Structures are given as C-alpha cells and as structure tokens.
C-alpha cells in the first residue's frame, strides 16, 4: 500500500514556502449533517514516530483516528476547521458548500498559510497558490492529516446530533446512506438536518407532498 509522503511539501519548501496547508473534507457524500473541512499546517522539520501511522481517514479505525487527531493537534503549526451546514448544501450545492467549508478552515489558520495542497479540488475563492491532488489524502501527509481532523470533527458533531434527532442512528452511521439509516428515513421521514437536495431524501419529501 502506497503511504502518504512529504514529497509535495518538500517541493514547495524548495520554492521558498514554509507554511503549507493540507486541506480535506469529510461528509461530502452523506445524506444528513454538514460537510466539514480541515486545514493543517505541519512544521517543516516534523519527525515523530506516529507519522508513519497517518493514512487517509477512511483507512483508519475510529480509535486510531481519535489517537492521531490528538497527535496532530499537539504537533501542528496551525489547524482550522470549517463547517458548511446542510442548508448551505441544499441552496448552493455540495461543491460550493465544500469549497466554503474549506475557505472557512483556511481563514482560521494562525499563522496563515502561504500555499495550499488540496484533496482533488481547487478553491478559487482563496487567493493563494494552490494545487489540487487526485487521491491527495492517500499521497500527501498534510492532506492525510487534514482528512483525519475533518473526519473526527464531523463524527463528533454527528454524535451530538444523535441526541437532538434520536431514532435515526446518526451516532452509528454519521449520516451516510446505510441500510439502517434508509430504513429509519422511511419510517420517520427526514429530519431538519437531512439534505433535501440529496436522493433518497428528496424523493421522500416529494412522496410526503
């Protein structure tokens, strides 16, 4: 398995950049809840034993993600978290909402980023040098760290939402379209945090009308 590396960060360092932010999101494909983005600036000379455990967040267990979340939080030069709620997703579309969440995360960075490495996409709303990397969360350490921070932050939000919107199992599936979630949707109908522009939520709303 190919492990994420600092190859992209080192290339940018040679160009004179020091504060290089990795950017990724979590929750883009979910049926409920927000899309959450994280921006992470790692020190240029970081060398810690946990770095070789970093992966795309989808390849890690929840317990391993929580542990690495703590390590990254302790070691990072700066971290930003941005949230675009389901209402923004429904009104602006998931791509614009994702870029908004990423911009909010970047805006929180202190000290600010000098350039960006982003999983898959570009953010025209941010006037910084940037590179979109396909499968960036698997290839680039800064982006992989951002994927962990975004995933853990979003999972924690969905556990909180489970208390506010009981019966859907949000703490278990985190809003994704599992069989159990779809069964709850059919039984209870959509909640106010379900994405009305996403199928099958959209279809259920039309049926109710």
General description of the model:
It is a single chain. The chain has helices at 7-14, 62-75, 86-92, 94-107, 136-139, 141-164, 170-173, 179-188, 201-208, and strands spanning 20-26, 35-41, 78-84, 115-119, 130-133. With 209 residues, it is an alpha/beta fold. Strands 3-2-1-4-5 form a five-stranded mixed β-sheet. Helix 2 (62-75) crosses helix 6 and helix 3 crosses helix 4. The termini are far apart. The mean pLDDT is 95.
Record keyword descriptors for this entry.
globular, alpha/beta, 209 residues
| Secondary structural class | alpha/beta
pLDDT below 50 for ≥5 consecutive residues: which ranges? none
Mean pLDDT: 95
What is the molecular shape? globular
Q: What characterizes the major β-sheet?
A: 5 strands, mixed
What is the CA-CA span between the terminal residues? 49 Å
How would you spell out the order of helices and strands?
A: HEEHEHHEEHHHHH
Number of DSSP strands?
A: 5
Strand content of the residues, in percent?
5-15%
Q: Give the number of helices.
A: 9
**What proportion of the residues is helical, as a percent range?**
40-55%
**C-alpha Rg (nearest Å):** 18 Å
Which strand order do you get reading across the main beta sheet?
3-2-1-4-5
């Amino acid at each position: 398995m190919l492990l994420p590396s600092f190859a992209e960060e080192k290339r940018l360092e040679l160009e004179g950049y020091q504060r290089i932010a990795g950017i990724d999101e979590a929750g883009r494909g979910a049926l409920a809840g927000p899309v959450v983005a994280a921006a992470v600036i790692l020190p240029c000379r970081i060398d810690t034993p946990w770095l070789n455990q970093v992966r795309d967040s989808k390849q890690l267990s929840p317990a391993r993600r929580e542990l690495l979340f703590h390590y990254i939080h302790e070691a990072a030069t700066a971290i930003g978290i941005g949230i675009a709620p389901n209402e923004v997703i429904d009104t602006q579309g998931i791509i614009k909402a994702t870029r908004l969440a990423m911009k909010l995360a970047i805006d929180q960075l202190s000290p600010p980023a000098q350039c960006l490495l982003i999983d898959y996409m570009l953010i025209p709303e941010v006037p910084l040098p940037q590179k979109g990397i396909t499968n960036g969360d698997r290839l680039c350490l800064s982006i992989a760290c951002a994927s962990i921070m975004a995933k853990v932050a979003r999972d924690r939000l969905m556990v909180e939402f489970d208390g506010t919107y009981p019966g859907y199992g949000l703490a278990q599936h985190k809003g994704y379209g599992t069989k159990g979630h779809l069964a709850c949707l059919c039984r209870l109908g959509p909640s106010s945090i379900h994405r009305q522009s996403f199928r099958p939520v959209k279809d259920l709303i039309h049926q109710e009308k």
